[in-house]
Amino acid sequence: MSQASDPKTSVSRRGFIRAVGLAPAVLQAVEARAQSSSGAAAPGFWHSPRHTGVLLADLSGAEPREAISPKPRKGCWYTIPYRTETGIQGVMVARGQLTHPPDLRLSLPVQGWHAIYVGLFGGARIDEFRLRLKLSDERLFESLAPSRLGYQRKPDGSWLRPRPAIGATDIEEVFWKAADLGGQQLVISHLRTNHPSVAQLAFVRLVPLTADEVEEYRRAGGRPETRLLAAEMDGQGPFHTGARTVKDIQENLEPLRGTDVGKLFLGTGGIGAGQTLYPSRVGAMMGAGEEDFPVEAGRRAAESLRGFQSRGIDPLKVAVDHAHSMGVEVYLGFRMGTMASVPPVWFEPVHFWKRHPQWRCRDREGHTIVRLSLAYSQVRRFYLDLLAELAGYGVKGVQLIYTRRPPFVLFEPPVVEDFKKAYGIDPRRLPEPARRRGDPPAADERLERHWATYVTTFMRELRGRLDRQRPEGPRIEVLANVGYDAAWNRHAALDLETWTREGLVDILCVYTGGDGTQRVDYDYFRKITRGTRTVFFEDITPRNMPGSRYARQARKAYAGGAAGLAFWDSGGRIVRKTQWHTIRRLGHRNDLEAMALQPREYRIHPLELIDGWSVELRYR
Asked: Mean pLDDT throughout 412-441?
């Protein structure tokens, strides 16, 4: 194995950044930030090694040797020799989509506390990359993936698809964790399901930590006063990848342990409310009763859920119990919108929506659409029964995701008749105002406020139902995902002023759009929550950003009055450690200034040779 001659040899920041091939202009920008007037310390091990440490670049010596082959072979990892432009020469281990080799164990020839960095090589299959690692004294694996750039808008407003933050011939060096490595081995694994994935590990770097750095790492752990963050997960992730074991579900949540994440907002539905990820008495479990699936992901998820059910395991209870074991409060909920999607679909539409077309929302022409209408008492009762079922898991609260395809009342017959009685006008004949990009469709303000009365009725019924369900003991809280300003929420028929004044909602989670362009109106949210029991969290987007940008957005949200920060699709952020190691400690408000100094650039080792051939002409 290739090792540095002296594990304690120090290199300057300039030397290290040059070693990973950053341009002089980038180097100057990094140093300028590090020497800013704030006086904060320059970023350390969280972003890049402060010492060369011990480099394990030839991984072909991992055990068991019989599970490693110089070429792809069934039941084996295969090796790929490589050389980088930054002077690393080694042999990576790789696993392709169609084989399931045993775990590898790599000896770590060091003692004491070290920062562990790993070289991830996504190659041509970066979208399918899922490497799993753990130390030998740990029970659960942790998944890692290379960094990505986020979604972006074109000038015409359309979306650009995300692209990798690193190229097909780049190795990304990522800080994984710090630990006392005496007597430890690194266990290298892959996604052990039938979900197509690849795993390619190029090297491992072990960098000794000083006593001060160990204390810094420990201090970054979550404490009561720093647990201001909420991880939002749709709950489908483990099943779409074919989860088979209790550990598969637990590993999805385990990275929250010891962080500033104090709340988990966990989705429990498939396409929509009533298509559940658990055995439900009210709805139907995702894929239940279906004989064939147009899409592979649907079959995989259904088989996963059926497998748990056949063994008498409730996967939602597993997730809730594991979160509680880490001291994380849980809120269970679902999207209030879409009940079906355009074929080919993962699953059949939500059964309740399919069986009751008379209770669907209707457009101006009278056509039913893919939402249920809260104007009908039967729909509200269906939702109330679902939410009461979720509250029965002993959680902190329930979640209503109102940010997907609102409003939830339109031109249903009783709505039209009620509006005519109130205003003497058929609402279907009212003009449609101009719509802001990213907002729900706008309507006449009288109609929007009329729609909102039905949603508020539902919120009042929910508060009463939850209070009756738990008449003694702690209040079952209500969390609602809402839009970023007064106009958005009015268009969506969400009367937040009434909800907060009447104590119908405990947390408003304010969505900022997938690209982060929807700016929170802090004055509005401070005004409607002032003097009430309600607080608001800001949902930080885009989903993929450098750590320094997360820190700057966190500072802005806290200054605006946010009680905490939430992160939609947290699972995708957790596996990308260049983001996660900043996100996980954003509750440490006094450290945000230092975190904002982290370099924006990813740590890249461009390949020079791979498997004996040059990448220059083909990829440069």
From this structure: 95
Give the C-alpha separation, 191 to 153, whole Å: 33
pLDDT exceeds 60 at position 283: yes
337/371 Cα distance (integer angstroms): 5
pLDDT higher at 305 or 289:
305
d(CA 312, CA 579): 37
Cα dihedral across residues 285, 290, 291, 292: positive or negative:
negative
Neighbours of 107 (CB within 10 A): 15
Reading the block at residue 343, the tokens are 């074929």
My answer on whether omega of the bond before 109 falls inside 30° of 0, hence cis, is no
- Helices 445-469 and 413-423, packing angle to 10 deg: 120
Residue 363: Cβ within 10 Å count? 12
Q: Taking residues 36-48, what's their average pLDDT?
A: 57
Cβ-contact 172, 602 below 8 angstroms: yes
What residue type is 434 in one-letter code? A
Of residues 189 and 40, the one with the higher pLDDT is 189
Q: What is the DSSP string of 221-257?
A: S--TTT--EEEEE-S-HHHHTT--SHHHHHHHHGGGT
H-type alpha helices, 392-444 = 413-423
Please give the single-letter amino acid code of residue 235: G
Q: Give the integer Cα–Cα distance in Å for 350 and 285.
A: 10
Q: How far apart are alpha carbons 234 and 277 in whole angstroms? A: 10
